[in-house]
Amino acid sequence: MTSPLLAPYEGPHLRLRNRIAMAPMTRGRADDVTGVPHPLTKEYYAQRASAGLIVTEGIWPDVLGKGGPGIPGLVTDEQVAGWREVTDAVHEAGGTIFAQLWHVGRMTHPLVLPGGATPVAPSAVGIRSERIHTSEGSVPHVTPRAMTTAEAETTVAAFAAEARNAVRAGFDGVEVHGANGYLIQQFLAENTNRRTDRFGGSREGRLRFALDVVHAVADAVGPERVGLRISPDNPENEIAEEDPQGTYRALVDALDPLGLAYLHVIERGAYGALADLRPRWSGTLIGNFNGPEPTSQRAGEEVLAAGLADVFSYGRLFIANPDLPARFATSAPLAAHVEHLVYGGHAEGYVDYPSLARV
Ligand SMILES: Cc1cc2nc3c(=O)[nH]c(=O)nc-3n(C[C@H](O)[C@H](O)[C@H](O)COP(=O)(O)O)c2cc1C
């Protein structure tokens, strides 16, 4: 039986050659000063263009949203020109590519930000249990500064501007990163949002930033070009959601009528998010599991067979298997990636993993 992952997908706004998406993965190889993607980034993504959909690594809309060394931006003309080379290469290889819009909020450090700026977040709630990778090695986090209401509004506008830049750079669409404990989830979660203005104070208030960003981005480039990634009940990066069902059901119900390109759900934690949210979402749904080991082909197939998602995204397996769909199709052996070459550096561990034809 052929794998359901290999069937083409035709959704309301997406036509994909298969149901395998490449999940967004930060690789830390952009120029740290200019935020322009590495000259090899076009080759890296073009090698992986047989995925039905590529979602890029997270890209900042505002330099205060940069989470580590070598993370690219999509603000300046030079950055747009760098990404244009990437999208051209992927399109030439027959692929579809969305840019991930990523503001990290409190998950950064003065050593990462220009001028030693203090990270901004919904509230001045620091992270105690984790350290952060900087140019001076791994260091403890600092307490972030709470955004003013005006800063929250400016940041919403920065996401919309980034989406316009993404379209100028030739991307097929954008994915708003609302997952994994970064800025948008910091607004959604009770423990990181202690605000008393209209961006906090109640469930409606906690949802407002996420909804404003998605609406602003959809107004900027059209809802059919916008996806949203969420990770309900994900404790990563010291997020504690008291009522994930209440929060995410309300978020999804508010966004479903917009006609977005897709909802990308990372399932993690006790809340069975895919099963709970699937019936509430009438558009395309992309599933993802984020466990300690790279997710298997079979796990994605089971999700599709159960009707819990239309497309399934793979992260780690794409690092060392650029032609992952061909390997799934032929049950070919899967290569393992080299851990210390994941972040930063140049070609090694980036564009030198061979495809099957070259093994
Ligand atoms: C090296 C690496 C970088 C990642 N960077 C991002 C990112 O920039 N944005 C994001 O939403 N998720 C990011 N993730 C999470 C992946 O998109 C995905 O959810 C996770 O790897 C689980 O899928 P897998 O089991 O197929 O690897 C990253 C994961 C890895 C391994």
> CATH-wise, what's the superfamily?
Aldolase class I
Distance between the termini: 26 Å
How many helical stretches? 10
Class derived from helix and strand content: alpha/beta
Q: Judging by the overall fold, what is the CATH architecture?
A: Alpha-Beta Barrel
How many β-strand stretches? 14
Structural features:
alpha/beta; 14 strands; binds flavin mononucleotide
Brief summary:
The protein has 359 residues and is α/β, with parallel strands linked by helices. 30% of the residues lie in helices and 16% in strands. Flavin mononucleotide binds next to β4, β13 and α9.
Describe this structure in words.
- The protein is α/β, with parallel strands linked by helices.
- The chain has helices spanning about 40-45, 75-90, 150-170, 185-190, 205-220, 245-255, 275, 295-305, 315-320, 325-330, and strands at about 10, 15, 20, 55-60, 95-100, 120, 130-135, 135-140, 145, 175-180, 225-230, 260-265, 285-290, 310-315.
- It has an eight-stranded parallel β-barrel, surrounded by four helices. Strands 1-2 form a two-stranded antiparallel sheet. The chain has a two-stranded parallel sheet with strand order 6-9.
- Flavin mononucleotide binds near residues 289 and 290.
- Flavin mononucleotide (FMN) binds near residues 177 and 288.
